[in-house]
Structures are given as C-alpha cells and as structure tokens.
Amino acid sequence: MSILSRYILKQHIAPFVGGFSLITLIWILNLLFKELNRFLSKGLPASVIIEFFALSLAWIIALTIPMAALIATLMAFGRMSADNEITAIKASGISFYRIIAPVISAGAVLTILLIWFNNSVLPDFNHRLRNLLQDIARKKPTMRIEPGVWYDELSHYGILVSAIEDSAGVSKIYDVMLNDYSEVNVTTTLIAERGTIRVDERYGLLEIELFDGEMQKTNVMKPNEFQRLFFPRHLVRIDITDMFLTRNESNYRGDREKSAAVMRQEVAEYQQKIDKKLAEMYAVIGKEFQTLFSSDFGMLPDSLAQVEDSTASRATNVSPPKHLRVVPPETTAGGKTIARQIRVNRPVPEHIAWSEQNTIFKKVRGTVNIINNFRKQQNKLLVEIEKKYAIAFACIVFIIVGAPLGIMARSGGMAFGGGVSLFFFLLFWASLINGEDLADRGLMSPFLAMWRANIVVGAGGLFLMFLLVTENSFSRFFEENRRQLLLYGYVLDWWEKRREGRAA
User: 10, 99, 314, 398: which could join 70 in a potential S-S bond, CB 3.0 to 4.6 Å?
Assistant: First the structure.
C-alpha cells in the first residue's frame, strides 16, 4: 500500500469512529425513551435492562456502519478538498480513481464483514432479543401499594391501607382492608389494625400477615347468611409468580432470526410445495377438459395422461358382438313380468352438472389461494435475504456518492457530513420499508425492492464522479445536453436525418 493510500485511509478513521459512536448513541437514546415506561412499570433489574440494550446493539450496528462510512467519506474528502489537498494530488498526475480506490477497497472489506455479521451474529441476537421481550411482556407490573389507594392488581385480591412503612424486606401496614375473591360467589373481607407485607421470591408468594382484626364472609347465593370471625393473627399467601421475570427459551425463529442459507432452504421447500399444488390443480383441470373436450390441452401430468390414454385405447379396441340375441322377458310364478332395464347414456341434469362444476371451481380456487400464500411466504423470505446483502453493499454505494459530493462541497465539518448522511439514510430507509411492503404483496420483485435504493444512489454517485473527472458542473452539463436530457433533441436529430435522406 502506498503512502498516499495509507494517508487517505487514515483521514477516514476518526470521522468513522465519531460518526459510528454518535449514531449508535442516538439509537440507544431513542430506545431508552421508547422503553423507559416499560422498564419502570415492570420493575426490571439492571441486568435485564443491560441485556436488552446489548442484544439491541446487533441490529443497531448493522444499520449504523453504512451511515458511518458515508459520514467518514464526506468529512475526509470534504476536509482534503477544503485544504486543497485534492487539487495538489491531481496536479501531481494522480487521477481521481486512484484517490478513491483505497477507500472503495476498505468499503468492500466492510461489506464482507457486514454480510458475515448479518448472517452469523445478527440472527442469534435477534432471536434472543425476541425471547427477552416476550418474557418481559408476560411479567406483570411491579406491585405498588400506596396509602389511601385501592390496589386490585393482585389475582382475586384487593387491598387498601391507610399508612405504610417500608423497611428492609418487610413493609409495615396500618388500618388494612383486604378483599378475597378466590371463592366463587363468596367475598371474604379482612379488616385489621396493622400488618406486614413480605415477598418470598423463592416461591413467588406475597405474604400478608394481619394482627388484631376480623374476617367477614358474604355469599351472594345466600344473602341472609353473614359470617364474622375475630382473630389475633392471620396469614394470607398470594401467588405472584407472574410478577417475576421468568426466562423461557423458544426454538421458533422469525424471518429476521435466520441466516440467508436457512431462508434459501425454506424458499426451496416452498417451491416444492407450490410445484406439487400446481400439478394437483392442473390434473383436476386437465381431467375435466378431457371429459368435456376429449383433450387435456397438455394440463395432465405425463403419468396421469398415460393412464387416461391407455384406458381410452382399451375402450376403443373392444369389438362389437357379432350376433345379437333377444332375451324373452322373465316371468315369476305369479305371472308378473320382470322387465330388464337397459341403461342409456342420458344428458346429466343441469343442476347436477352445475354442482359438479361448482365443486371443481371451489377446489381450484382453494388450491390457488394456497399457492398464493406459499408465494407470499417465499417473497418475505427473499426480501430478508436480499436485505442482508443490500444493507451491507450500501457501504460501497455510500462511498461512491460521498467522495465526489464531499470534494464538490469543500466542507469537512460534522454538521455537513451528518446532514447529508441523514438525508441519504432517510431515503435509503424509506425505500427499504416501501420496497418490503410492495414485495410482500407481490407488486415488486424482492431483488428490485431491496436493491433499488442502492441502484439509484449508486447511479447518482457515478454521475457525480463523471462530473468531477470531466471537471464539469451541473449547470454547464445541463446546458450542453439540455436537448438530449429533455428527449426532444433526439426527435429533432432523427427528423433532420430523415429530411436529409429524402433530399438526397
């Protein structure tokens, strides 16, 4: 590697690290504000919160690296252009392509590493993150008993206290009223002057111990009965296991929790299912055509068509009888004649024919719906496959557009780099979201849906490079090629050539 290449790459290190750190911090703060209410209401321990952010770093890194590459390219080439370093390098006979070559090589390395990351690390982290979020969702909010406020978040219980004193492991409560609804049609009310509350985390129990109180029982089915019992001490145990975070491991993986190789295998399996359903549908339609028109129009599978042909040939090869004999009618002892019935091929009644056709139509329509569902699943998998590579390849695309843009802007500040990067990132992200929706609905191919942003931005970058190499500007280029850009120039040229040909 030449000294110039090392120097250019060195200029990108600080902006890349700074941009990566800043964007990652923005994503983390966004997650924190978004999930803060959930963390506080669920009473999650610090270790779980740290694990949540650590697992979220995987998808944040996958999105941040291309943006950091764009920021670094804009800032590095912008500063070099502002300090006239690019002009000096060109004056020494070094072309722009030689200047940008080491940066594109570094972008290719980033792309390869990001492809590996998206297929090896990201799926496992997404899987663990989804399991953690499901565990958090199952956990009930932390119990918060406040004085003078009726608390009914406990299963089959409600409690009201006038005062509460928190201490290590045990809370003292005063003027307590506890309603127990665990028995059907029976309400048990406990009233006590004082008591204690303790949580047994080992068994997932809430222990409420009451002193100097009374128990009142009422039954809605027996309104005339009322039970009242005084007690010096009474212990109530309530199951609160759903208020603790229990970790469960699910083996199910969504589309974003699989590698590209696994999803390609599933795409092939769906294709086999589609081919099987298509063969079944064509067999039904072909058999019906064979019955109605004596031809399956090529829809029957080869094996089924051969069976139909052999059956038809056997039927046509049956020779008619040489002699016909009239059998006299048989008579019984009573003299009654038993007439032999001769079946004649009569036209099928209209309602029966309509019923048969309707049954076939419903069967075909059901098969088509199944095939469409399989294709939708295929498209979803293909979208995720293409997304893994499109996001990684964006590192190279952003370098292609960032280098000429930074040189033209002649500004190496973070404000310029961050602002331009934000614009391209929003454009890229909106294209991915919109493309994913179109591809899932079958309105666009998964490849085009995921790669169109790279194609458009890359083409724009190549155009900027062309202007930079030819030392042209937007206004001059547009003025010189206005007729061709507006298409009417081609029409005029064609018309003039046609007139010259006629005159000759």
Answer: 398
Which residue has 């086999």 as its token pair?
272
Q: In whole angstroms, what is the distance from residue 24 CA to residue 266 CA? A: 33
Q: Which of 28, 110, 23 is nearest to 426 (CA)?
A: 23
Confidence of residue 486 (pLDDT cuts 50, 70, 90): low
Rounded to an integer, what distance in angstroms lies between the CA atom of residue 298 and that of residue 276?
17
How would you classify the pairing of strands 157-160 and 337-338?
A: unpaired
User: Which DSSP state fits 93?
Assistant: T
How many C-beta neighbours within 10 Å does residue 504 have?
Answer: 5
Q: From the CB of residue 192, how many other CB atoms can be counted at a distance below 10 Å?
A: 24
Q: Which residues pair with 222 in a beta bridge?
A: 219
Which whole-number Å values give the CA distances from 475 to 162, 384, 481, in the listed order? 78, 41, 10
Q: Which two tokens stand for residue 336?
A: 């009654």
Other C-beta atoms closer than 10 Å to the C-beta of 89 total 18
371-385 pLDDT, tens digit each: 888 888 888 899 999
Q: Find the angle CA(359)-CA(361)-CA(362) to the nearest 5 degrees.
A: 65
Q: Note the pLDDT tens digit of each residue in 76-119.
A: 998 888 888 888 988 888 888 888 899 999 999 999 999 999 99
Q: What angle do CA 264, 269, 271 make, to 5 degrees?
A: 95
Rounded CA-CA distance 154/311 in Å is 74
Q: Which amino acid is at 22?
A: L
Strand runs labelled E in 70-204 = 157-160, 163-166, 170-180, 186-200
Mean pLDDT over all residues of the chain? 79
SS3 181: coil
pLDDT(318) > 50? no
Of the chain, the end-to-end C-alpha distance in Å amounts to: 61
Cα atoms in the Cβ-side hemisphere of radius 13 Å centred on 426: 5
d(CA 17, CA 467): 30
Confidence at residue 9, expressed as pLDDT on a 0 to 100 scale: 92
Q: What is the pTM of this model?
A: 0.69
96-116 and 46-82 helices, crossing angle to 10°? 170
Distance, CA of 437 to CA of 402 (rounded, Å) = 28
CA distances from 49 to 124, 139, 143 (A): 18, 14, 19
- What contacts 58, CB < 8 A, 6 or more positions away? 121, 122, 125, 126, 129
